Amino acid sequence: MSSCPCLRLTSRYDVETGVAAISGSSPMPCRFVVKDAGRMLEILTDQARRAFVLAEEYASSLNHPYIGTEHVLVGLLDEGGTAACALESLGAGESTIRSGIEEIIGRGEPRTTSAAPWTKRTERVVRLAKAAAADEGREFVGTPHLLLGLLSDDDDAGVAVRVLGSLGVTKDAVQAALAA
């Protein structure tokens, strides 16, 4: 088990069930489950974990019973770190992205469960982010790697990629913004 005291987050992986989870306490309540994700949470920086907590909160606010790439995108913006700065420098602000997401997928029905699993596409994005971090010689996945992972997904059917594409945000543009 690892812990992030500044955010009061705890991550754990249950070998028997194959379930990884983050849980938190005040001031940031959060709960989400990743089925068959192995040790994915262990490779995230504190900022990247915070982005996933914020993604879960956004999913919950829309009554979505899952954490998709669109929720991760908003989590990256809400976290306010390097990825958010890169997006904002490209004209992809939070309100524009939220509007685009809600236009595509809308709001869900009120949900009764407190756990929201990652979608397969979200799991794939984390794997792509891990590869981006490894390309830089880094052991942990940060928010810039998650953003690059979102844009590296070959399947452009993901909501995050569609919203970013509609704003003219490409992987090359993000890489240039991150390098600046």
Structure in words:
The chain contains 8 helices and 4 strands. The chain has 180 residues and is α+β, with helices and mostly antiparallel strands. It has a single domain (2-179), classed as Orthogonal Bundle (Double Clp-N motif). It has a 4-stranded antiparallel sheet with strand order 1-2-3-4, with helices on one face. A hairpin with a 4-residue loop joins strand 1 and strand 2 (9-14). The radius of gyration is 15 Å and the shape is globular. The N and C termini lie far apart (36 Å).
Task: Give the CATH superfamily.
Answer: Clp, N-terminal domain
In the CATH hierarchy, the third-tier topology is known as Double Clp-N motif
Number of strands: 4
Given the helix and strand composition, which structural class is it? alpha+beta
Radius of gyration: 15 Å
User: How many helices?
Assistant: 8
**Which blocks of ≥5 consecutive residues have pLDDT under 50?**
1-38
Tally of domains: 1
Order of helices and strands: EEEEHHHHHHHH
Give, in spatial order, the strands making up the sheet with the most strands.
1-2-3-4
Q: Roughly what fraction of the amino acids lie in strands? A: 5-15%
Give the CA-based shape.
globular
> So what's the oligomer here?
single chain
Biggest sheet descriptor: 4 strands, antiparallel
Distance between the termini: 36 Å
CATH architecture: Orthogonal Bundle
Q: Estimate percent helicity.
A: 40-55%
CATH classification class: Mainly Alpha
